[in-house]
Design goal:
Elements: E1 2-9, E2 19-26, H1 33-43, E3 63-66, E4 69-72, E5 87-90, E6 97-99, E7 102-103, H2 106-114, H3 136-140, H4 159-164, H5 171-181, H6 189-196, H7 210-214, H8 221-236
Parallel strand pairs: 1-5
Antiparallel strand pairs: 1-2, 3-4, 3-5, 6-7
Length: 241
């Protein structure tokens, strides 16, 4: 069957303004959106720019906005959308466009780095080369967070980032901090909690749950943020009513 795609096009160094190009692709219901984009680039317009790598929902490279919702193109199928109409493909929101569907992720990775203390005392610090043991229950406290693939879909969907406070560190960065704060092997959890309390940190989150809804790895991002907030209050502000 024939499926129509309306795709955002923009090259900041050459174009005065963005435009949308329409392409028709022969596709089946179970074809991935990424498969369709590949057909367009390989068979119709080799200048179409987008990121991809593993194509199996592991690397997070092909995050983009599909019909207004952030997703991985390699995970979404044609049948997930109303294919009788145009399927709209746009870059992730918030991030500057490099070309077409490729965005500049610098701001995102800066946030991920900002959650670390200047001097880290993490799992790599051992004594006598002994194994640092951890119970199943201790590991379970941050197991969800280590599934994050840094695709930035959550940050590109966060109403705080998009509409209220662009400087907010972002849900992915807070999730990353939770991974260390709740790891029993890490020795600088308090330092990390203090970093989370800095301006545009964890308290900027307004619990919209949008990050959880769009996460391609089904991570309960909002729950992780709420757990971290509770621990910060409990350990840094014990007298708070």
């Amino acid at each position: 069957m024939e499926v129509k795609f309306k795709i955002f096009r923009f090259h900041p160094k050459r174009d005065k303004a963005p435009r949308y190009d329409t392409f028709k692709v022969e596709a089946s219901l179970n074809d991935r959106i990424l498969d369709c984009l590949n057909k367009i680039r390989w068979e119709q317009d080799g200048s179409l720019a987008y990121r991809m790598s593993c194509a199996h929902g592991i690397c997070g490279s092909d995050g983009m906005t599909i019909n207004g919702v952030a997703a991985l193109a390699c995970q979404r199928l044609v049948k997930d959308y109303d294919y009788a109409k145009e399927i709209l493909i746009e870059p992730l929101q918030f991030f500057p466009v490099v070309k077409d569907l490729v965005v500049d992720m610098t701001r995102f990775f800066q946030g991920m780095k900002a959650i670390h203390p200047t001097i880290e005392q993490n799992v790599s610090t051992t004594k006598g080369r002994k194994e640092r043991k951890q119970t199943v229950e201790e590991h379970a406290q941050f197991e969800d967070a280590i599934k994050c693939i840094f695709c930035a879909c959550c940050t590109a969907s966060c109403p705080v980032v998009l509409e209220e406070e662009p400087e907010f560190i972002g849900p992915a960065a807070v999730l990353r901090a939770q991974r260390y704060i709740f790891d029993s092997r890490v020795k600088d959890a308090l330092d990390r909690m203090k970093i989370m309390e800095e301006p545009h940190g964890i308290w900027s989150c307004k619990t919209y749950f949008r990050c959880t809804k769009v996460c391609p790895k089904r991570i309960k991002v909002t729950d992780a943020i709420l757990q971290t907030k509770s621990r910060i209050l409990r350990e840094l502000h014990p007298d708070t009513p």
